[in-house]
Specification:
The protein is 19% helix and 19% strand. It is an alpha+beta fold and 187 residues long.
Length: 187
């Protein structure tokens, strides 16, 4: 492969499915809103990547919906020719351009039918490395985590009166992000 020059024009993406709860918080499945189940590995080899970026760990938040536009772009498909309903972003723009590619926040949900499932439905809003809001809609129960100081999401602040304003703010932010996502806007 190396001698044939294939590595000079071949992108390699390594990723996997989401993590899985193995009894943490009394849950067991993939469909949980906590960090141990939401994060997935992502390694990209791209011969177009500048030397200064090769081997670096990037902090930009990517989502699984970003993979299709990334692969399509690497295959030479222009953004305007991609399906309109694709809501993800081309990850290569995070390392091939000087543009502000980053994602400041994102909405997430697990709203599948719950018949026979061991996991309840939820929706949430994440400001990476800062805050996470979770709404367990079937139970009218909310959670709030300060990700800047509580990486394990061990301290639920939703019922702490000192965080009432932050809870309201994130609830409203989630509603806006959900509306944007449901109307087909870029995530």
């Amino acid at each position: 492969i190396v001698n044939a020059g294939l590595m000079d024009n071949t992108m390699i993406i390594f990723t996997s499915s989401t993590g899985m709860s193995m009894g943490e918080r009394g849950l067991a499945e993939k469909a949980t809103p906590y960090e141990e189940a939401m994060k997935t590995p992502l390694i990209i080899y791209d011969p177009r990547m500048p030397e200064s970026k090769k081997g670096t760990i990037m902090t930009e938040v990517t989502l699984n919906i970003d993979l299709a536009p990334t692969i399509a772009s690497a295959a030479g498909i222009k953004a305007e020719d991609m399906p309109e309903q694709w809501q993800g972003k081309d990850i290569t723009q995070a390392y091939l351009t000087d543009n502000d590619w980053g994602r400041d926040d994102f909405y997430f949900e697990f709203l599948a039918g719950n018949d026979g499932a061991s996991q309840p439905t939820f929706e949430g809003f994440n400001i990476p490395h800062k805050w996470k809001y979770i709404n367990w809609d079937q139970y009218d129960y909310e959670q709030l985590f300060d990700l800047s100081s509580d990486l394990d999401e061990a301290y639920d602040l939703a019922r702490n009166p000192d965080y009432e304003q932050k809870l309201v703010e994130l609830r409203e932010d989630m509603a806006r992000a959900k509306s944007r996502m449901r109307s087909g806007g870029k995530v």
